[in-house]
Design brief:
This protein is of the alpha+beta class. It has three helices and four strands; from the N terminus they run αββαββα. Strands 1-2-4-3 form a four-stranded antiparallel β-sheet. A hairpin with an 8-residue loop joins β3 and β4. The chain is elongated, with a radius of gyration of 19 Å.
């Protein structure tokens, strides 16, 4: 009986740790989005899956996008950043872009090392 309780308790701790990790990743994404991205452009869509965030944005120039990428890459929680789509907004000057950014975060245990 004690062994069964220990196994159950261990499973509960594993679930709690997994949820804590998931929450830390989500908080990291949201902090990054708010601090480094939303102050520079407009959010049009957002998708978060595990440690990957796809962000559709608009209203930034290529220079602003490039500067944002540089800031994102400097973040200790970011593993990689890529630009998957860039186009001009219809009816706007060619310098204003619509784009999608894919950000992959490091696992929380990697960040703390």
């Amino acid at each position: 009986m004690i062994q069964a309780v220990r196994q159950f308790s261990h499973k509960e701790r594993s679930i709690d740790m997994a949820q804590t990790t998931k929450n830390a990743i989500r908080k990291g994404f949201l902090d990054l989005l708010e601090q480094e991205m939303l102050s520079h452009g407009s959010l049009t869509a957002l998708q978060i899956t595990q440690n990957t965030m796809n962000v559709d944005m608009s209203g930034m120039t290529l220079d602003q996008i490039s500067a944002m990428f540089a800031r994102l890459r400097l973040s200790p929680i970011v593993d990689s950043v890529s630009l998957s789509v860039a186009s001009t907004e219809e009816g706007k000057a060619a310098t204003i872009m619509d784009f999608t950014v894919r950000i992959e975060l490091r696992q929380p245990e990697e960040v703390s090392q």
